């Protein structure tokens, strides 16, 4: 593309013009959000009607599809996420519970999904997040569900056994671990603190660089960062966000063993979204312990042409050697083929609980 500008002053003048247009358009969009809130309030809509996960997912997909560059589609979607977050805050102040303290990857996931115009509420344990959302103190919660290298988060799965909450979204977050310290070298380091999964994900780097230093598991990487900020003899494995929050130096970054290390998080709430056009459905299913029981459960999905993306088993806690299966499938529970398959599955299973249908992660 030929450069149509002949001087730096011309370019800067054009940037100022564009910034003014962008600002004006963002405020125009915000006025539309206020109008939406007014219409919904006058129509008697409840709190749940203000945030529409399926609508936001559709908008973000359109942003990516129509984006011509040079800004990447993913980066453009992040910018629009923040615009939507600011506009939604004019309709309704959102409280989002997450696994704290501030600076955890769950905190990062909550902000990635909802934007920075929400009130993020930290909790010390996954069950506290569930209770907070169930009680209505927070509108939604964000909890980790699985990591690409270390597998499923059992505590999250177990909470779904008895919780009435629905899954309303998912977040996929690339995990880049950094070694953080108050000082600027590894001299005199006496301990490495991190969540147990982070320690496992960085095993090779630690074996090579801090082989004889004790590794101590704590509740979260952010808690580890807080400890490192208080003790020069301690280093923590955490994110760059935690480094900034606790004023730590990054001794080394991207120390995870797998470069594609990704954690998936679930957004939990009291309602299940409408179809967005590209959805997932999560199920909890149980069957009597007999030969072919699991195959009998999965066959209706295969017969309906439904793709299964994940399956995990957990003890049912009702009887010895009895298990429940957590299954993720592509499609929404209201899709014709999915609804038909679930009808068959309900007849064949001793327990069938739809944990939620929700938009697949966009970015």
From TrEMBL:
In its keyword annotation, does this UniProt entry include Ribosomal protein? no
Mind listing the UniProt keywords for this protein, alphabetically? Amino-acid biosynthesis, Aromatic amino acid biosynthesis, Coiled coil, Cytoplasm, Isomerase, Lyase, Multifunctional enzyme, Phenylalanine biosynthesis
Q: Which reaction does it catalyse?
A: chorismate = prephenate; prephenate + H(+) = 3-phenylpyruvate + CO2 + H2O
Q: Where in the cell is it found?
A: Cytoplasm
Q: Where is the Prephenate dehydratase domain?
A: 95-270
Major place of residence: cytoplasm
Q: Where is the ACT domain?
A: 282-359
Protein name as catalogued: Bifunctional chorismate mutase/prephenate dehydratase
Q: Can you name the source organism?
A: Candidatus Tenderia electrophaga
* Biological classification of the source: Bacteria, Pseudomonadati, Pseudomonadota, Gammaproteobacteria, Candidatus Tenderiales
